[in-house]
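Re: the multi-chain job from yesterday

Posting the exact lines I submitted so nobody has to dig through the queue logs.
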Amino acid sequence: MATEFVINGLKATIEGKEILKGINLSMKGGEIHAIMGPNGTGKSTLASALMGHPKYEVTDGTVTLDGEDLLEMEVDERARAGLFLAMQYPSEIAGVTNSDFLRSAINARRGEGNEISLIKFIRQMESKMKALDMNEEFAHRYLNEGFSGGEKKRNEILQMMMIDPKIVVLDEIDSGLDIDALKIVANGVNEMRSEDRGFLIITHYQRLLNYVKPDFVHVMMQGRIVKSGGPELAERLEAEGYDWVKEELGITDETVGQE
Amino acid sequence: MSTEIVLPVDREAVAALSNSKNEPAWLAELRLQALETAVQLDNPKPEKTKIDRWNLDAYGTASTNAKVAQFSELPEAVQEVLRSSEDSEVANVLVQVDSNVIYTQLAEELKQQGVIFTDLETAAREHEELVKPHLMQAMKADEHRVAALHAALWNGGVFLYVPRNVEVSIPLQALFYQKDSAARFAPHVLIVADTNSRVHYVDTYISSETTEASVHNGVVEVFVKPGAKVTYASIHHMSKETVDLSYRRAVVEQDGGIEWIVGEMHNGNTISDTTSILKGNGSTSDAKVICVGNGEQKLNLTTRAIHFGKSSDSQMITRAVMREQASSIINGITKIEKGATKANGEQTERVLMLSPKARGDANPILLIDEDDVTAGHAASAGQVNQEQVFYMMSRGISREDAENLIIRGFLAPVVSEIPNEQLQAMLKSYIERKLGQ
Ligand SMILES: Nc1ncnc2c1ncn2[C@@H]1O[C@H](COP(=O)(O)OP(=O)(O)OP(=O)(O)O)[C@@H](O)[C@H]1O
Ligand SMILES: [Mg+2]
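And the result, structure tokens for all chains:
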């Protein structure tokens, strides 16, 4: 069955404030969707709510992955169902090495009695790290601890490549990356493109989309998707900013959740 | 406080013991003097922990276990700890069961180099010139009643002497096993590392399962002479009914260094005090302590560095995980004396509480009497970070596994420092046991 990811009328609040005000978005395997939008319009909130972050309360709507109700699931179950979120600000966890963490993540999906052999795991990890131009020492460093901004982003992509998810949400994976790293990360994403994998890429800049060509571009304001189009929409936003969208839609304050 | 002074032993018993062991007169005298001092002293008053209801006097009676010649004749519990996975012969090891040392083994090569590794009772008879100037000098008998009683009652123990310029590459190891809870258990470890020498020493304190109250009153004294480096690692894992009173003191001379690695995996109430006296210029101390508390344990853990030497440096890290109703007070004390210019002291205390009834209190204390110094501290007490749990779960790891990884990760920086793989594995297994896995 081809991958199908459907967000329908999703509303979410944080500390009682409504941030997501009814998100509708439908994605199929093989598609790349980009979400753009000014700061504070709810993009990361959408990503976190999809993944099930405990701070966000979903108050309405549905999210399904291949017909399965994601909102009913715990965070780890969502991940094992095939959802992956590369976070805008990944956590640092001292004392847990990157490789131990990744192996636990892989084994969690494979289940007890079916753990990946150590040698196979190491081989896989080494080849993916090489593809991402990551120094081998990062395997033995503590998870994200003391990583630079760019190194953290690369490490998110490494995890994505190792975990092999169906739906990938990338929240500002391009922020903090230098030009070379941006190309490497984009290559990683392109390599992972396949008929049964969908990408939802949250970004502020066209430059990532030059390397990873989106099929659809959505603009988020005030906790909603207010405009959708093809790749040309991103190009126009890059050239002209958001004012014309706001004007067209009669929006004065595009942010959400401000008192 | 009661005014009636009752000591757990009397003068006659102490004198008789000295006599039976053929102790030199100075030592017999030291014990009797300490006993007299004990009458006038109060118990220690560890910061924020009330110990008046602890069973502090269950010293039992001195026992004598037969010495054994072969490793294979040692009690199974002892062999289990010492036996490495590959070979059954264990080199450079000393074993105390209850009140006396029953087995000592030191490689011929080390003996040739002049290394002395024997029980302290023997050393007091045979190496008076090395023992007498050091015994109960880093830890004074008149510090408090527990110290005085230790000075009067200590038994078995270790004496380790490393001559000038000698570097011992493999860790020397001691194991203290309280088999019978009615036996007195008060080993004293005395280490003298002579100028420019180097040594790693590890010891383990275990006991049989028992429901009887008992006390472990242990003192460790390490003398680090100029330019010498000593690593001391210790793991404590005794029965729930045993009160563990452990005082560790190092006196570090010019350019010398002490490294403490302590695994507090004891199951009963604990006072653990690890102090470095940085006497010489350029002397250093690095203390790492981890602790897992469970059940109804009460723990008071202090690490302390006292700087006298110029440009002396102290680092202290304590990490404690408290579960169930366990409670801990973690004190870090950096004291810099006037004149210790360019001294530097850094300390971190962190407590992770795994249940609503677990308690942890981290107290960083800086006492600084000199202007030209640097010092820093960080302390925290809290629960497992839910942001970290979310991150791990978002990769498919279950909540339970995520928390377990985080807790083990919290302790990892100290576990990985244990200079002996066998002991590292053992410490990990004690951690698992105490975490209820
Ligand atoms: N944990 C939180 N506590 C309080 N307010 C929050 C929290 N998370 C998000 N918000 C608020 O929700 C609104 C949307 O935030 P969100 O992070 O989703 O924006 P964004 O579109 O991702 O912005 P950016 O482009 O800057 O990353 C903001 O007003 C933000 O302050
Ligand atoms: Mg964001």
